[in-house]
Amino acid sequence: MIFLMDLQMMLLDVIYFILRGSVRIVFRPRTKPIDGELVLITGSGGALGRLFALEFTKHGAEVVLWDIDANNNEETARLVREAGGKAYPYRVDVTNRVEVYRTADNVRTDLGRNVTMLVNNAGVVAGERLMDCPDELLERTMKVNCHALFWMAKAFVPQMKEQNHGHIITVASVLGLFSTACVEDYCASKFAAVGFHESLAHELLTEEFDGVKTTLVCPYIVDTGMFDGCKIRDEVALFLAPLEPRYCVEQAMNAILIDQPLVCIPRLTYLPVISRALLPWESNVVTYRFMGSDKCMYPFIESKRNKLTNGGPTLIAAN
Ligand SMILES: *[C@@H]1O[C@H](CO)[C@@H](O)[C@H](O)[C@H]1NC(C)=O
Q: Which of 241, 232, 238 is nearest to 291 (CA)?
């Protein structure tokens, strides 16, 4: 009897959330105020991280900026201050867990307050064929895109739980939900990031820390130079061009400010996610072939190789 009542309640809830989700596509819910929040952004010296810093500043939050590149990070801090915000830059290698824990403690003592929003944005890609790629570069992709999420969570989630207040944002990629050829390191790390994020989100809900929100951001290729050269069929690219970084961050912010658990940017990329789940593998393969997304990374890897042989120092691109 109890079982049937639970079943009925569950089904009603399922329908309620489907309807709510549909309505929200058209009528955006009210955004939450984030002035007074302390937002930590990793990879804040990069293009996306910098834009995130400026967006959070615009909404009245203060930003703690973590990047391995002190110069780029200082520049982000300068831009935030120029925009009238408060920025606290730290030079951190997020792959070094000792450094992560120590700097987290430094942030707490320096600022005398807790980080309430965490934006795991730092990300890298090797940009070489698996068989040609130095092992260290493959490991680095896992360390930055996945392992760093463990250290960041251990450093900052306990206080969020204790206050039952906070927000964890993971910038993954649509390549954490479906994949393509020749970016094995990146896909492995982003699938890992998605798994990590969702498990943590489940944990928070199961333990009823419903004040600690989570948002998984899965953007398509963003035009930051990270995937320079990546190319799909022209006719398809008309609908699915590389994302303008500003557009990507604005869409991510919209999702964050309404506590949306998942956002794929642009919306069109929900289609391959659904088709991957529903259609036979071979059907997806022929779709990829038609769209030119099977070989989309070939020119990207080619352009990276040219950069390297031209003596460019760009071994690794970052968000
Ligand atoms: C930070 O979080 C800890 C753990 O909940 C709490 O004891 C402390 O008072 C918080 N600090 C501030 C300044 O809110």
A: 232
